[in-house]
Design goal:
Gyrase A, domain 2; single chain; globular; alpha+beta; binds the ligand C[C@H](O)[C@H](O)[C@H]1CNC2=NC(N)=NC(=O)C2=N1
Amino acid sequence: MPRPPRLSPDELTAALSGLPLWSGDGTGLHRSIELPGFPDAVAALVRIGFVAEELDHHPDVDLRWRTLHVTLVTHSAGGVTGLDVDLARRVDALFPG
Ligand SMILES: C[C@H](O)[C@H](O)[C@H]1CNC2=NC(N)=NC(=O)C2=N1
């Protein structure tokens, strides 16, 4: 599937202003999600995984005890695209913070 283009700096700034739980730059969007315990963190990763499969767009996730460190980047585009913004919104819908 063709990938969309990387966001411009202005587009990225606008996207991040609508994603207050996320930080980042052109190399990736980042959010950490702390759960009550390790099993909850594993379950959260599975839930994110199903959304990722639905979107055919996948996060980089570092699971540390009960915290998921999520990075979104479109690897084939070499930076952040609208697909990452879409996935960030879907993650926030699951875990509003
Ligand atoms: C064929 C399939 O669409 C691609 O391999 C997708 C799958 N998920 C992906 N996820 C992310 N984050 N970046 C990609 O470039 C990517 N490519």
